[in-house]
Amino acid sequence: MKLIKIPLNAGALSKKKGIEKGPDVIHSKIENFYLKENGVLPFFSVDEVKIDNLNIEKSNLAISKKIQELDIPAIIIGGDHSLTYSSFKEFSKKHKNPGLIIFDAHLDCENNFSPPTHEDFLRVLIEEKHLKPENVAHIGLRNFHSNEIEYAKKSKLKLFDMREITRDGLHDVADAFTAVARTFDAVYVSIDIDVLDPSFAPGTGYIEPGGLTTRQLIYFIQRLKNLKNIELWDLVEVNPSKDISELTITTAAKLLVEMA
Ligand SMILES: [Mn+2]
After folding, report:
1. What single string gives the DSSP state of each residue in 168-200?
2. What distance in angstroms lies between residue 148's CA and the mean position of ligand 1's atoms?
3. pLDDT higher than threshold 60 for residue 157
4. Total-model pTM
């Protein structure tokens, strides 16, 4: 599997300081895991997008160019979640009916700023018509503004929030979002580490209690790995400078191994 490091910090907001170190430190933890849980040896070839964190437009162009050139499935390690804007936008040009599966505590539909921040990227992808709203499945929501949830409902995004996961169970929710994913000709999976409960992944910008366990997220990833149409993954918002006992970076490396 190709692993693309994108050390984007998107303007060095105080909450984000240190996030640009995520790709390297997560990569350094991969060797802790000998095999995938199915017994297969994970293999990674590593690539990197050169990011200028003082120039967002230039960085977005560099991300676009890398995705344009990509001809095999890959995993992106971030970096700020706004990188999904540039990478999905490019991804959508290559496919007839692309879909986006998002794991995130948040909706990221706050505003329609251009270029979007990590709080807006999903809404901007939809409003700029790079993504059909019905082609979004969003898993793990638990903190949102009222304008975002109104937008999500009006746009008919497929939401599987934490209450639903708890009520209906992992298997039913995984059945539902994998059935949705099968209808797309190519799937992009974006994982914000804050979908995990902060007790499992404290090293991130926004602490959101009441999230998934690491085991639950691994189950969802393993279910997605059964699909044949996943072309691109990203794992974003890991901030090593906010980590405790390397828990978040080690967990992120484990997730990458299961995605491979
Ligand atoms: Mn988030």
Report:
1. H-HHHHHHHHHHHHHTSSEEEEEEEGGGB-TTT
2. 13
3. yes
4. 0.97
The CA distance from 232 to 72, in Å, is 9
**CATH class in words for 2-259:** alpha beta
Residues paired with 233 in a beta bridge: 75, 189
Distance, CA of 171 to chain centre? 21
How far is it, in rounded angstroms, from Cα 260 to Cα 255?
9
Instruction: Measure Cα distances from 124 to 3, 11, 121, 237 in Å.
Output: 26, 18, 5, 19
Domain residue spans of the chain: 2-259
d(CA 234, CA 5): 10
Q: How far is CA 63 from CA 49, 92, 175, 215, 240, in A?
A: 6, 14, 32, 31, 22
How confident is the prediction for the chain on average, in pLDDT? Answer: 95
Predicted pLDDT of residue 14: 63
Question: Residue 83 is encoded by which pair of tokens?
Answer: 């990188």
Residue 45 Cα to ligand 1 middle (Å) = 27
CA 40 to centroid of ligand 1, rounded, Å: 31
Per-residue DSSP letter, 18: T
CA distance 217 to 65: 30
Q: How far is the CA of 194 from the centre of ligand 1 (A)?
A: 5
105 C-alpha to ligand 1 centroid (Å): 5
